[in-house]
Automatic annotation (TrEMBL):
GO terms for molecular function: cytosine transmembrane transporter activity. Its main location: membrane. The chain crosses the membrane at residues 7-29, 35-56, 77-97, 117-133, 140-160, 180-200, 212-233, 239-265, 286-303, 309-331, 340-360, 366-389. The keyword Lipid biosynthesis does not apply. InterPro entries: CodB, Pur-cyt_permease, Thia_CytX. Belongs to the purine-cytosine permease (2.A.39) family. Coiled coil: none annotated. GO terms for cellular component: plasma membrane. Pfam families: Transp_cyt_pur (PF02133). NCBIfam families: thia_cytX. It comes from the Bacteria. It comes from Sporomusa malonica. This is Putative hydroxymethylpyrimidine transporter CytX.
Length: 401
């Protein structure tokens, strides 16, 4: 895959209802401060994201398999299980969000109300997107992103032509550090899966720059649309914006397409993580199964507490990748040891990082929680690694008679 392929892939991933809704959470800061938090948070978050992608393109390993470098085989099983849970959760959250928006549109336009049906439709499209395979994916995704780009311009016109956007007084309570953290967490949520795609990069630099530009541009844009809509109307729901713009039938296409181009990445990478536990089953079959599970979960469970879900992801994966990035880029450990079962020292430092994350969230620092947690975790690991050399479980050596 080339830099253009990655640019389109990650721009399409970023154009989603979840990103718009999250941008709306920053409305209490007002537009100027909110936009500053969005840009700064994405500069940091997207750069961390791409560092994980570089590991994938250089080792040619999926994201969860790269954790064997630091944590060993059994350690990677733990993180594979956690990643599968968060990706199935994301799949369900995205299907619910997309289904609700579609249902709101059909209720307003045609008085048709069936949330379950729309969840099934979106889930089925995600299933077909995965079934198309890598070659089909590149062609479909290119066409989809071109359409989404045009439609995103229309959404921008709805929000940014309202003159009250820049003069309306902020209402609500949110710190700059809290807003910055919500801007860092979104790209961080993709960190456990970016290597699943950059491992196919023609060149490391193409995978890195294409992914960085595509995601940074798309995600910042979505956040700004959500921020602007929440300030002007008090509602960051994309469906409401599109109905206000009299898009009608086109609004259905926007919501469905943006949901599918994002959510298929979650379902596919859940399948890739499953191969770490079930190596004899193909990635695509497992990904299709994950799409079915995510769809079923979306129908059965009413998923709320979206902001808490984002923080939970940050708490697990920020310290995890702080350890891996420290090993790979600073300590020079770039190959997994086939005999290493568990690196207990790395697991302990990761657990300390998880606890620290919630403490830093409470401190509400102006730099957020993710950056200081990753820095402190990385330093602790780098300093303690030399003292924990023997804190490892390894496979017993075979005795040759």
């Amino acid at each position: 895959m080339t830099s253009i392929n990655y640019m389109l892939l990650w721009f399409g991933a970023a154009v989603s209802i979840a990103e718009i809704i999250t941008g709306g959470l920053l409305a209490p800061l007002g537009f100027a401060k909110g936009a500053t938090a969005i840009v700064l948070g994405h500069l940091v978050g997207t750069t961390i994201l791409v560092l994980g992608g570089i590991i994938g393109s250089q080792t040619k390993l999926p994201a969860i398999m790269t954790t064997r470098i630091s944590f060993g085989i059994y350690g990677s099983y733990l993180f594979a299980a956690l990643n599968i849970m968060q990706l199935i959760g994301w799949t369900a959250v995205m299907i619910v969000a997309g289904g609700r928006s579609v249902n709101q549109i059909t209720k307003m336009v045609w008085s048709f109300d069936n949330m379950t049906l729309w969840s099934l439709v979106i889930g089925a499209l995600i299933f077909l997107w995965i079934a198309a395979g890598n070659d089909g994916l590149k062609k479909i995704n290119s066409a989809a992103v071109a359409l989404l780009f045009v439609l995103t311009v229309v959404l921008s016109g709805v929000v940014f032509t309202d003159s009250s956007l820049f003069t309306k007084q902020p209402a609500g309570d949110m710190s700059f550090g809290g807003a910055l953290e919500l801007s860092v967490i979104m790209p961080l949520s993709w960190l456990p899966l970016i290597a699943d795609y950059t491992r196919f990069a023609r060149k490391t630099s193409e995978g890195a720059w294409g992914s960085w530009i595509g995601y940074f541009a798309g995600s910042c844009w979505m956040y700004l649309i959500g921020l602007g809509a929440a300030i002007v109307t008090g509602d960051s729901d994309p469906a409401a914006m599109m109905l206000a713009a009299n898009l009608g039938l086109a609004a259905l296409g926007i919501v469905v397409l943006s949901t599918v181009t994002t959510t298929f990445l979650d379902a596919y990478s859940a399948g890739v993580s499953c191969t770490n536990l079930l190596p004899d089953v193909s990635e695509r079959k497992l990904a299709l199964a994950m799409a079915v599970v995510g769809t079923a979960l979306a129908i059965v469970i009413n998923i709320e507490q979206y902001e808490s879900f984002l923080y939970a992801i940050g708490s697990v994966f920020a310290p995890l990748f702080a350890v891996l990035l420290t090993d790979y880029f600073f300590l020079g450990r770039q190959q997994a040891d086939a005999r290493l079962l568990v690196n207990w020292g790395a697991v302990i430092v990761w657990a300390v990082g998880v606890v620290m994350y919630y403490q830093f969230v409470k401190l509400d620092l102006v730099v957020g929680a993710t950056v200081p947690v990753m820095v402190v975790t990385g330093v602790i690991y780098a300093v303690s690694a030399r003292f924990m050399v023997g804190w490892k479980s390894v496979k017993a050596a075979k005795v040759v008679s």
